[in-house]
Amino acid sequence: MIQQTKTSMDDARQTNTSGLQSMPRVSAVLTSFPLFPVATHKFIVLSLVSFTAYTFYWFYQNWKRIKTASQATLSPFWRTAFAPLWAFSLFSHIRTMASTQGIAAGWSPALLGTFFLVLNFLWNLPGAWWLISLAVFVPVIPVQQTAQSVNEICAESVMEARNDSYSFGNVAMIIIGGLLLALAIMGSFMPDSSPLPLLLTVMR
């Protein structure tokens, strides 16, 4: 009786194993990268000519993808609105993702997050000193490059474009934003009585 029971259990295991092996394989093709894809040169250029707006767009897109992947109850909009505070969390998350994939990230989330936080409060500095705040994207560059390394691991199985070229809209932004940036820089070094500083004050 015991021998028959053991034989039945062994048969059940074999049947179960056979069933698992016959299950269809899940496709490894992904519709999008785990993190927002953008070439470093494009990230820098668009961040400059948009007066750092593209940097915050980068934050929003990454939080959006993280929410989709983790099914977490977070708001990409509010985490972007308070990006100087949530940068620490995003940087840590991207560093953890990289570490899981065996990618070494030679930067500190706390250090870069603090740098990013401080730069966000320099826009109201007097005279031309406010221009320092335009470098708010600089501490994000190492994080962005690490995010790209994470994306490269699954690049061959992802249908999404790498976002390393400039669209017509990007070119238009570069031309218009570049002119405004040039005016802002020139106006910052002109006497307060000239028209450009007055225009700059309105823009700020």
Molecular structure report:
- With about 200 residues, the chain is mostly helical.
- The chain has a domain at about 35-165.
- It is built from nine helices and no strands.
- It has helices at about 1-20, 40-50, 55-70, 75-80, 85-100, 110-120, 140-155, 170-190, 195-204.
- The protein is globular.
- The relative contact order is 0.15.
Please specify the SSE layout and strand pairing.
Layout: H1 2-21, H2 40-49, H3 53-70, H4 76-81, H5 83-100, H6 109-119, H7 141-153, H8 168-188, H9 195-203
Strand content: under 5%
Helix-strand sequence? HHHHHHHHH
Work out the number of β strands.
0
> Could you tell me the radius of gyration in angstroms?
25 Å
Shape: globular
Number of separate helices: 9
Q: Given the helix and strand composition, which structural class is it? A: mainly alpha
Sheet having the most strands: none
Keywords:
globular; mainly alpha; 204 residues; single chain; 9 helices; disordered N terminus
Describe the structure concisely for a colleague.
The protein starts with a helix and ends with a helix.
